[in-house]
Specification:
NAD(P)-bd_dom_sf; Quinone Oxidoreductase, Chain A, domain 1; 15 strands; 6-stranded parallel β-sheet; alpha/beta; 10 helices; ER; 7-stranded mixed β-sheet; NADPH binding
Protein backbone atom coordinates (compact mmCIF):
# COMPACT_ATOMS: atom_id res chain seq x y z
CA UNK A 1 0.00 0.00 0.00
CA UNK A 2 1.01 3.66 -0.32
CA UNK A 3 1.56 5.97 2.65
CA UNK A 4 2.86 9.48 3.22
CA UNK A 5 5.78 9.56 5.62
CA UNK A 6 7.23 12.49 7.56
CA UNK A 7 10.93 11.98 6.79
CA UNK A 8 12.02 14.72 9.21
CA UNK A 9 10.40 17.71 10.89
CA UNK A 10 10.22 20.77 8.69
CA UNK A 11 8.57 22.32 5.65
CA UNK A 12 6.04 20.47 3.45
CA UNK A 13 8.74 18.82 1.36
CA UNK A 14 9.46 16.40 4.23
CA UNK A 15 6.21 14.63 3.26
CA UNK A 16 7.18 11.74 0.97
CA UNK A 17 5.11 9.00 -0.65
CA UNK A 18 6.32 5.51 0.24
CA UNK A 19 5.23 1.89 -0.06
CA UNK A 20 4.74 -0.57 2.77
CA UNK A 21 2.85 -3.76 3.61
CA UNK A 22 -0.92 -3.67 4.00
CA UNK A 23 -2.01 -3.49 7.66
CA UNK A 24 -3.89 -6.35 9.29
CA UNK A 25 -6.85 -5.59 11.58
CA UNK A 26 -6.42 -6.69 15.18
CA UNK A 27 -9.27 -7.65 17.48
CA UNK A 28 -11.92 -4.94 17.42
CA UNK A 29 -10.43 -3.25 14.35
CA UNK A 30 -11.62 -2.78 10.78
CA UNK A 31 -9.51 -2.62 7.61
CA UNK A 32 -10.61 0.16 5.25
CA UNK A 33 -9.57 0.85 1.65
CA UNK A 34 -9.22 4.63 1.75
CA UNK A 35 -11.25 6.74 -0.68
CA UNK A 36 -9.91 10.01 0.75
CA UNK A 37 -8.11 11.45 3.76
CA UNK A 38 -8.87 14.81 5.32
CA UNK A 39 -6.05 17.33 5.84
CA UNK A 40 -6.09 19.17 9.17
CA UNK A 41 -3.98 21.80 10.91
CA UNK A 42 -2.99 19.12 13.40
CA UNK A 43 -1.18 17.40 10.52
CA UNK A 44 0.83 20.56 9.88
CA UNK A 45 1.76 20.78 13.55
CA UNK A 46 2.83 17.12 13.50
CA UNK A 47 4.93 17.72 10.38
CA UNK A 48 6.69 20.57 12.18
CA UNK A 49 7.36 18.41 15.25
CA UNK A 50 4.89 20.19 17.55
CA UNK A 51 2.09 17.61 17.79
CA UNK A 52 3.37 14.06 18.25
CA UNK A 53 0.94 11.16 17.91
CA UNK A 54 -0.25 9.52 21.13
CA UNK A 55 1.60 6.39 22.30
CA UNK A 56 0.90 3.41 20.06
CA UNK A 57 -0.55 5.49 17.21
CA UNK A 58 0.80 5.58 13.67
CA UNK A 59 3.64 8.01 12.99
CA UNK A 60 2.09 8.88 9.63
CA UNK A 61 -0.16 11.95 9.50
CA UNK A 62 -3.90 11.88 8.93
CA UNK A 63 -6.75 11.95 11.47
CA UNK A 64 -9.78 11.14 9.31
CA UNK A 65 -10.65 9.05 6.28
CA UNK A 66 -13.50 7.70 4.23
CA UNK A 67 -13.56 4.45 2.32
CA UNK A 68 -14.85 0.90 2.02
CA UNK A 69 -14.45 -1.89 4.58
CA UNK A 70 -12.36 -4.75 3.15
CA UNK A 71 -11.88 -6.95 6.24
CA UNK A 72 -12.74 -7.03 9.94
CA UNK A 73 -10.81 -8.28 12.95
CA UNK A 74 -11.93 -10.78 15.53
CA UNK A 75 -14.96 -9.74 17.54
CA UNK A 76 -16.18 -7.08 15.11
CA UNK A 77 -19.93 -7.40 14.56
CA UNK A 78 -21.02 -3.91 13.50
CA UNK A 79 -19.20 -3.74 10.16
CA UNK A 80 -18.84 -5.99 7.13
CA UNK A 81 -16.77 -5.93 3.92
CA UNK A 82 -18.34 -3.56 1.42
CA UNK A 83 -19.65 -1.07 3.99
CA UNK A 84 -19.14 2.61 3.15
CA UNK A 85 -17.60 4.29 6.18
CA UNK A 86 -15.88 7.40 7.51
CA UNK A 87 -13.39 7.04 10.32
CA UNK A 88 -11.73 8.99 13.12
CA UNK A 89 -8.04 8.09 13.61
CA UNK A 90 -5.16 8.75 15.99
CA UNK A 91 -2.90 8.95 12.91
CA UNK A 92 -2.02 7.17 9.69
CA UNK A 93 -4.81 8.47 7.46
CA UNK A 94 -2.50 9.56 4.64
CA UNK A 95 -2.52 6.05 3.19
CA UNK A 96 -4.34 3.80 0.77
CA UNK A 97 -5.30 1.34 3.55
CA UNK A 98 -5.90 1.91 7.26
CA UNK A 99 -7.11 0.01 10.30
CA UNK A 100 -9.69 1.78 12.44
CA UNK A 101 -11.17 0.79 15.82
CA UNK A 102 -14.74 -0.34 15.13
CA UNK A 103 -16.13 2.27 17.55
CA UNK A 104 -14.55 5.11 15.57
CA UNK A 105 -16.39 4.46 12.31
CA UNK A 106 -19.53 6.10 10.95
CA UNK A 107 -21.70 4.75 8.14
CA UNK A 108 -21.68 6.98 5.05
CA UNK A 109 -25.19 7.34 3.59
CA UNK A 110 -25.59 6.34 -0.06
CA UNK A 111 -26.50 9.88 -1.11
CA UNK A 112 -23.25 11.34 0.30
CA UNK A 113 -20.21 11.27 -1.99
CA UNK A 114 -17.77 8.79 -0.43
CA UNK A 115 -14.69 10.92 -1.17
CA UNK A 116 -16.24 14.09 0.26
CA UNK A 117 -17.27 12.20 3.41
CA UNK A 118 -13.61 12.28 4.48
CA UNK A 119 -14.10 15.98 5.28
CA UNK A 120 -16.45 15.15 8.15
CA UNK A 121 -15.29 12.76 10.93
CA UNK A 122 -12.69 14.92 12.68
CA UNK A 123 -14.60 18.15 12.17
CA UNK A 124 -18.01 16.82 13.24
CA UNK A 125 -16.64 15.01 16.30
CA UNK A 126 -14.62 18.09 17.28
CA UNK A 127 -17.44 20.56 16.73
CA UNK A 128 -20.12 18.44 18.37
CA UNK A 129 -18.11 17.46 21.45
CA UNK A 130 -16.98 21.03 22.06
CA UNK A 131 -20.15 22.94 21.27
CA UNK A 132 -22.52 20.55 23.03
CA UNK A 133 -20.53 18.49 25.56
CA UNK A 134 -18.05 21.16 26.64
CA UNK A 135 -19.98 24.31 25.73
CA UNK A 136 -23.48 23.26 26.76
CA UNK A 137 -24.97 24.68 23.56
CA UNK A 138 -28.75 25.01 23.53
CA UNK A 139 -31.34 26.38 21.13
CA UNK A 140 -31.48 30.15 21.33
CA UNK A 141 -27.87 30.53 22.45
CA UNK A 142 -25.53 32.99 20.80
CA UNK A 143 -22.43 31.21 19.51
CA UNK A 144 -19.19 32.81 18.32
CA UNK A 145 -17.18 30.56 15.99
CA UNK A 146 -13.66 31.78 15.32
CA UNK A 147 -12.29 30.76 11.95
CA UNK A 148 -15.72 30.06 10.51
CA UNK A 149 -14.26 29.28 7.09
CA UNK A 150 -11.98 26.48 8.35
CA UNK A 151 -12.52 22.74 8.36
CA UNK A 152 -13.98 22.69 11.86
CA UNK A 153 -15.54 26.13 11.53
CA UNK A 154 -17.68 25.32 8.49
CA UNK A 155 -19.06 22.26 10.30
CA UNK A 156 -19.53 24.11 13.60
CA UNK A 157 -21.60 26.78 11.84
CA UNK A 158 -23.88 24.14 10.33
CA UNK A 159 -24.30 22.17 13.55
CA UNK A 160 -24.95 25.19 15.74
CA UNK A 161 -27.48 26.52 13.23
CA UNK A 162 -29.23 23.15 13.05
CA UNK A 163 -29.50 23.14 16.85
CA UNK A 164 -31.27 26.49 16.81
CA UNK A 165 -28.39 28.74 17.88
CA UNK A 166 -27.65 32.25 16.62
CA UNK A 167 -24.24 31.94 14.96
CA UNK A 168 -21.64 34.70 14.69
CA UNK A 169 -18.37 33.94 12.90
CA UNK A 170 -15.01 35.56 12.44
CA UNK A 171 -13.39 35.30 9.02
CA UNK A 172 -10.56 36.92 7.11
CA UNK A 173 -12.65 38.97 4.68
CA UNK A 174 -16.20 39.87 3.72
CA UNK A 175 -16.40 37.20 1.02
CA UNK A 176 -15.69 34.47 3.55
CA UNK A 177 -18.27 35.94 5.91
CA UNK A 178 -20.87 35.70 3.13
CA UNK A 179 -19.93 32.09 2.44
CA UNK A 180 -20.35 31.35 6.14
CA UNK A 181 -23.77 32.99 5.97
CA UNK A 182 -24.68 30.54 3.22
CA UNK A 183 -23.91 27.75 5.72
CA UNK A 184 -26.23 29.28 8.31
CA UNK A 185 -24.28 31.99 10.14
CA UNK A 186 -26.43 35.00 10.92
CA UNK A 187 -23.61 37.50 11.12
CA UNK A 188 -19.85 37.74 10.71
CA UNK A 189 -16.86 39.81 11.78
CA UNK A 190 -13.88 40.45 9.50
CA UNK A 191 -10.70 40.04 11.54
CA UNK A 192 -8.31 41.40 8.90
CA UNK A 193 -8.21 45.04 9.98
CA UNK A 194 -6.42 48.16 8.70
CA UNK A 195 -2.83 48.59 9.80
CA UNK A 196 -2.58 49.61 13.44
CA UNK A 197 -6.02 48.27 14.40
CA UNK A 198 -6.04 45.29 16.76
CA UNK A 199 -9.10 43.14 16.10
CA UNK A 200 -8.85 41.65 19.61
CA UNK A 201 -9.41 45.12 21.08
CA UNK A 202 -12.57 45.56 19.02
CA UNK A 203 -13.93 42.03 19.41
CA UNK A 204 -15.92 42.31 22.69
CA UNK A 205 -17.75 45.42 21.55
CA UNK A 206 -18.54 43.91 18.17
CA UNK A 207 -19.85 40.69 19.73
CA UNK A 208 -22.06 42.48 22.24
CA UNK A 209 -23.39 44.77 19.51
CA UNK A 210 -24.17 41.80 17.25
CA UNK A 211 -25.99 39.97 20.05
CA UNK A 212 -28.07 42.90 21.27
CA UNK A 213 -25.85 43.35 24.33
CA UNK A 214 -26.21 39.72 25.42
CA UNK A 215 -22.74 38.41 24.53
CA UNK A 216 -21.79 34.93 23.39
CA UNK A 217 -23.10 31.98 25.37
CA UNK A 218 -20.44 29.80 23.74
CA UNK A 219 -17.18 30.82 22.07
CA UNK A 220 -15.40 28.17 19.99
CA UNK A 221 -11.81 29.35 19.68
CA UNK A 222 -8.93 28.12 17.52
CA UNK A 223 -6.80 31.25 18.02
CA UNK A 224 -5.58 30.83 21.60
CA UNK A 225 -3.63 33.31 23.69
CA UNK A 226 -3.99 36.35 21.42
CA UNK A 227 -7.79 36.32 21.90
CA UNK A 228 -8.01 35.03 25.48
CA UNK A 229 -8.93 38.29 27.20
CA UNK A 230 -11.13 39.43 24.30
CA UNK A 231 -12.99 36.13 24.27
CA UNK A 232 -13.74 36.28 27.99
CA UNK A 233 -14.99 39.86 27.60
CA UNK A 234 -17.19 38.69 24.73
CA UNK A 235 -18.98 36.08 26.86
CA UNK A 236 -22.50 36.39 28.14
CA UNK A 237 -23.14 35.89 31.85
CA UNK A 238 -22.76 32.16 32.45
CA UNK A 239 -21.03 31.71 29.09
CA UNK A 240 -18.33 29.22 28.16
CA UNK A 241 -15.11 29.75 26.21
CA UNK A 242 -13.95 26.48 24.62
CA UNK A 243 -10.36 26.60 23.37
CA UNK A 244 -9.53 23.96 20.76
CA UNK A 245 -6.49 25.56 19.10
CA UNK A 246 -3.55 27.82 19.78
CA UNK A 247 -2.72 29.25 16.37
CA UNK A 248 -1.69 32.55 17.98
CA UNK A 249 -0.04 31.50 21.20
CA UNK A 250 -0.36 29.13 24.13
CA UNK A 251 0.12 31.53 27.06
CA UNK A 252 -2.13 34.45 27.90
CA UNK A 253 -3.31 36.55 30.84
CA UNK A 254 -6.71 35.73 32.31
CA UNK A 255 -8.71 38.27 34.33
CA UNK A 256 -10.09 36.03 37.08
CA UNK A 257 -12.16 38.84 38.53
CA UNK A 258 -13.99 39.27 35.24
CA UNK A 259 -14.43 35.52 34.92
CA UNK A 260 -16.00 35.42 38.38
CA UNK A 261 -18.31 38.37 37.72
CA UNK A 262 -19.41 36.78 34.45
CA UNK A 263 -19.86 33.41 36.18
CA UNK A 264 -18.13 32.10 33.08
CA UNK A 265 -15.99 29.07 32.26
CA UNK A 266 -12.85 28.52 30.21
CA UNK A 267 -12.46 24.97 28.89
CA UNK A 268 -9.58 23.52 26.91
CA UNK A 269 -9.93 20.28 24.95
CA UNK A 270 -8.23 18.08 22.37
CA UNK A 271 -9.62 15.05 20.59
CA UNK A 272 -6.64 13.09 19.30
CA UNK A 273 -5.11 12.14 22.65
CA UNK A 274 -8.34 10.85 24.20
CA UNK A 275 -8.59 7.13 24.96
CA UNK A 276 -10.41 4.93 22.50
CA UNK A 277 -13.42 4.51 24.75
CA UNK A 278 -13.89 8.28 24.93
CA UNK A 279 -13.56 8.59 21.16
CA UNK A 280 -16.06 5.76 20.73
CA UNK A 281 -18.52 7.59 22.99
CA UNK A 282 -18.15 10.80 20.99
CA UNK A 283 -18.56 8.93 17.70
CA UNK A 284 -21.67 7.20 19.06
CA UNK A 285 -23.12 10.56 20.12
CA UNK A 286 -22.38 12.00 16.68
CA UNK A 287 -23.96 8.98 14.98
CA UNK A 288 -27.13 9.40 17.01
CA UNK A 289 -27.48 13.17 16.87
CA UNK A 290 -25.39 15.00 14.26
CA UNK A 291 -24.88 12.39 11.53
CA UNK A 292 -28.61 12.15 10.69
CA UNK A 293 -28.40 15.81 9.65
CA UNK A 294 -26.71 14.55 6.46
CA UNK A 295 -30.06 13.07 5.45
CA UNK A 296 -32.05 16.29 5.54
CA UNK A 297 -29.30 18.60 4.29
CA UNK A 298 -28.63 20.46 7.52
CA UNK A 299 -25.06 19.11 7.42
CA UNK A 300 -22.87 18.67 4.37
CA UNK A 301 -19.15 18.35 3.71
CA UNK A 302 -17.45 21.54 2.55
CA UNK A 303 -14.51 20.66 0.31
CA UNK A 304 -12.05 23.23 -1.00
CA UNK A 305 -9.84 20.92 -3.06
CA UNK A 306 -9.12 17.27 -3.82
CA UNK A 307 -5.49 16.36 -4.49
CA UNK A 308 -3.68 13.06 -5.15
CA UNK A 309 -2.08 11.45 -2.12
CA UNK A 310 1.32 12.02 -3.73
CA UNK A 311 0.69 15.78 -3.50
CA UNK A 312 0.43 15.88 0.30
CA UNK A 313 3.15 18.55 0.41
CA UNK A 314 1.11 20.77 -1.90
CA UNK A 315 -1.96 20.19 0.26
CA UNK A 316 -0.03 21.43 3.30
CA UNK A 317 1.20 24.49 1.42
CA UNK A 318 -2.35 25.28 0.39
CA UNK A 319 -3.66 24.93 3.95
CA UNK A 320 -0.77 27.05 5.24
CA UNK A 321 -1.67 29.79 2.74
CA UNK A 322 -4.89 30.64 4.56
CA UNK A 323 -6.87 30.56 1.32
CA UNK A 324 -8.75 27.34 2.08
CA UNK A 325 -12.50 27.38 2.72
CA UNK A 326 -13.51 24.07 4.30
CA UNK A 327 -11.35 20.96 3.86
CA UNK A 328 -8.61 19.71 1.57
CA UNK A 329 -8.81 16.00 0.74
CA UNK A 330 -6.06 13.63 -0.38
CA UNK A 331 -7.07 10.87 -2.78
CA UNK A 332 -5.01 7.64 -2.89
Amino acid sequence: MHVVEITSFGDPDVLVLAETLDPVPDRGEVLVAVAAAGVNRADILQRRGHYPPPPGASEWPGLEISGVVTAVGEGVTRWSPGDRVAGLLEGGGYASMVVVPEGQLLAVPDHVDLVDAAALPEAVCTAWSNLVDAGGLQAGHHVLVHGGSGGVGTVAVQLATALGAHVLVTARDADRVERCRALGAQDGLVYQRPDGVDFADELPGLVHAATGGHGADVVLDVVGAAYLDANVRSLAVGGTLVVIGTQKGQRGELDLGLLMVQRARVVGTTLRARPRDEKARIVADVAATAWPMLDDGRLRPVVHARLPLAEAAQAHRLLDSGDVFGKILLIP
